[in-house]
Fold each of these.
Amino acid sequence: MSQKNRPLAPPVERLHKQPLSQFKTYAQDVGRETRPLDGQINLLPKDIKLNKNPAILGSYLFRLWQERTDKTKDTLEIKNLNDLSSFMGNSNYETKLYLLALGGIARQLIYSGLDRKLRLTTVLLFDITFIYSEGAEAKYKGGSLDMFGTETLSFIRDEPIESIQIRPNKYWIRALEKQPKGKYNGLGLGSVFITNDSLKSLLDASQMAYKLFNYTASNRPTQKIREAGLIKALGLEEQVKKQGKIRVRKSIASALEELVNMGHLVEHNCEAGLYSFTYSDKIVKHKDHLKE
């Protein structure tokens, strides 16, 4: 066969790593807060809402952090906020609010220690620094800047950002490290590969489907869990109290079908209060898939 007539090779699937701890945190915490980011001047910690979009932005930032060109620096530098907003499909102002949700409040995080005991701690998911021009510094001395955010992280409401420095928390960074055979590196729960394109596609998922995606992705491809355990893992206790179990069950069932349509779930079932799931390797590339 001549070179000209040879079939084209399939495109190489682009992958990156995401920590299992990140999946577990997003599965439980996304959507638990009830008050929205509504543009008020004095934003309090309880007003910063970790919803699906800020969480997806967090996963995207973690991917970009791994892809940074200068590996001698432990921070990712974003020169143009438009790049993040374009990926998310929203305004720069909304993107800054999402960054507050990721770096303005300590969130619960699950990880393992050297002794392999499971731990829950509170930590900033990302360390984020907004950097402004010399002109902004001059205005600051004059006291004319309108700050918006929390004591931990704020941005200047109407001042263009020159750059943003971003660093994930140490538990997620450590989860990327390759472990020598038979040894344990001491922090995190490890990581799995996921496809680059999946982050964008998750923007179209419902919040419940997103939470379930994160929960299933944080475990082995085939898994089982009791209903009470799933409600706790998804942080749905308050939702069950307000809406009742029947309504929440219907929401979970609908979200599971979404994940089937996305190609993430191969099958799912619920009998006698026991949920079972099997996910494909379309989005998440678990080591068990490689064995197969």
Amino acid sequence: MTINVISTLCQPNRDDLYDQIKANATLCRQVLQQDSHLGKRLTIVGAGSSLAVHHGDILPATEVWACNSALPYLVDRGLPVTHGFCIDQGPDMLKPSEWGRSFDVDYLLASSVYPALAQRLTDEGHRVTWFHNYLGLPNPEGWIAPADFHPDPIHHCYEFWLYCALYPPAPQAGYGLNSVVRAVCLGIWMGFKHITVLGADCAAKPTGVQMPAYGTPDWVPFLKSCVLYADGRTAFDAYGPDVTMVQKDMETRLGDLSSVTRWHTRSDMVISAQHLANLAKSYAHPRPGVPTSIQLLGNTLPNAMMDKPRGFFDTFPRLNTASGVEGFELVMI
């Protein structure tokens, strides 16, 4: 039997995030500036498994932003990188596979990141530039927005008030659910002329394996076969035995040739893949009023989505209006 599942998105360290935003405000000395990089080139690097194949395709660029574990991956291989980029809010960013080590790069941090990470980078003298990453957190019980805070009722929220009250004017990224998508949005806002994206797989490395039913004896071996990261880490390594995955067979067309690829991923990654594909299609070529172009490199789920009509995504997981994800299926036995 197959059932449709609706799940709720949960923020890591949700109960601590307002305190983290407040703590990081004491460290903020500079923020991203609009149109500060007009006409320049940006490369954004995710840590997906395709990076291991395409890291040699990093073209000369004004800046190269490495998201999360893509930073140690690039540095350890002597590949070009100028910035580390992070929106993740938890202490896992201090693990050896992430930013347990510091590097001779500048850092771009969301105001909600784990404060111990931000404090360490600041204490070590690294250049840190800040921005905001929309979280969608509920207001504290009883909080009422000041009457003179903002005329738009949509922004009468405590999270937005903290950003305005504690930080200098700075951008807030809110499209997509992962670091690469939000980095792309910030790159557009900063005026980069061309943005190249590598390693934004939003899925495991394709193997063609049929996904077993959740909770069966084959489930953990399956997770251990799902390589999510360029450094070889799997779904089991990253999320443990209880993570749920989704499977989708998709036809990919290249000229007159087509092939079917079986993708395994998480529901939140599917949503980010759709957002990234939408951005890439919207900014495929510079045109009047839209000076930025975006190019996705590699055998990634967003690239596989690029030629699909809008109705195709009706069968994919999607956000609803209650901070939830719906539209993915779970096999019950």
Amino acid sequence: MLKNKKNLVTGATGFVGSCLVRRLVKNSDKVHIILRRNSDTWRIKDIFKKTNPHYLDLNNAQMVKKTIKEIKPEVIYHLAAYGNYLEESRKNLETNIFGTLNLLEACHKIGYDIFVNTGSSSEYGAKSKPMSEKDLLEPNSYYAVAKAGQSLLCQHLARERKLPVITLRLFSVYGPYEGPKRLVPTLVNNCLRGKDLSLTSPKTARDFIFVDDVVEAYLKAAQSPNLAGHIFNIGTGEQSSLEKVVSIIIKLTDVKVEQNWGNMSNRSFDTNTWLADISKARRILKWQPKHNLEKGLSKTISWFKMNSQLYQ
């Protein structure tokens, strides 16, 4: 059983990483996390003592080797990343690609059961149809380029060395502990406070997936060491427009706020089509999401009501 395995999570203080850590500590006392000295641990503050923290920079190859040799992890969940769509810097490439290489090389020396890498739907670039793992990658930002390089690096080493490395390409994850400046937390918090909404185009679309379903995908992947080199889309297989997201949140919060469409400019990567083909994950991982958009947003809103102090 996975609960008896020694787990290592990078990116444990991030949104998805923290939710995964919370799930793991329920089942095991063998949860090691890698974080930077200046990491903000607000997402895992209440469970921090239940983890085994290790402070280092993944770009420091020697420190990574030393730490991995000490931990000897059996299951590695790699969620650490640098940057986002808006940050175009050398740091994106250094951390996402070379940091991943350092971790893979260090783990290869000690051996492990499974390495679950984290990719991004941004690797695909804009498409006019559901995105498939077989599609040509057309990243349109430094972050997307870095994530594509990271995924391809993991796939290459998995195939060349026959290593148990799998990549999950995440679509638009939302839910408890998401960053306060992101779309869903901004909409929910503003509605709960009765503040009017500044919005872009109502037709902008994303494949929104609830974080609990994503955590389930990581746990499923961790039980599949014989799928070396495989990449899986993790979304819902349904896209939702911003107009739909806003209408559901307003209905669930039962508030009257102004919807100021077009008050904000569209970003270069905004599109009316952004949809995952998740047939491969369903077929091979035996995974599928359990939350539709309304159910996921309902749970998210309930959590925000109970934890508003975290977003002050």
